[in-house]
Amino acid sequence: MLRGLASRSALALSLLATLSCGSEQGDRRQSIDVPSPAGKDKRFQDIGNPNGPDHVPHNTPDVRVSGAVVIAIDKFDETGNGKSQGTIYVQDINSREPYSGLSLFAPTFVPGNLHVEPGDVIDLRGTYQENTTVPIPFAPGWFLPQLSQPTATFRFEHRVPDPVDIDIKELEDFGTGRKWLNMIVRVKNVTVQRDVTTAGSGRASAELLPGKSPACEEPGIRPPTITNELFDVGALNLKGGQTLKSLTGVVTFFCNLHISPRSAADVEQ
Fold first, then answer.
1. Residue 190's beta-bridge partner residues?
2. Per-residue confidence (pLDDT) for residue 39, from 0 to 100
3. CA-CA to 261 of 20 to 30 Å: which in 84, 207, 212, 239?
4. What distance in Å separates the CA atoms of residue 127 and residue 87, rounded to the nearest whole number?
5. Which of 133, 157, 181 is the last residue of a domain?
6. Do residues 90 and 111 make contact, with C-beta atoms less than 8 angstroms apart?
7. Phi-psi category of 3—alpha, beta or left, where left has phi over 0 and alpha has psi -120 to 50?
8. Confidence band (pLDDT; 50, 70, 90) for 77?
């Protein structure tokens, strides 16, 4: 409610300023520079695209991004020890283009009591990182991109973007799958390769393409998996050989690329 009041107050002030300007100038038309509602700082697709002119390297401080919409917040804690929750996933507002997503590590908020939810648009200022060891070494060329310890400022309420339809085979290799990392995607007619069961650690996963992954630090193709990072996938009782009509989720990474559904609605059996 406070956010809504703040947004309406800002709009009223903007309209008042425009009307005051018009009264001073009479009916004479003039060009007014209207600021973008999503801000004018960088977007994730600017800093994350390795072939783009604004790409920044690992450990670049003071990276400023505006117009980032929260797409998911990890509240599930699959391991049950409080260590596997808290990650916030964000995506460029109104964009479904490659490299438009990122995850946040240890953010702080302005004001300090701000609790963001999916659909909220925020501005960010932090250190861009492409981590190759978290906490174990990844295969050559594989890394975890994050905005580390960013300050997040609320801008306005929006909505979570629609998923991007991709080919599941793109997620076998980091070179083709990295561009969808931390974004909401959807794959269709994908077959679960084995039963999705929960291990003693609380983690549950299953490959979505045939094959076996090499050790985390070794090079090679790695079948993408469905995981329970954001939701209790194990409760769906998915069986090996079962073909899903569609699977939607956030593309996440640890040793290989995953699709992490946010709720049962993301899994169409």
1. 244
2. 80
3. 212
4. 16
5. 157
6. no
7. alpha
8. confident
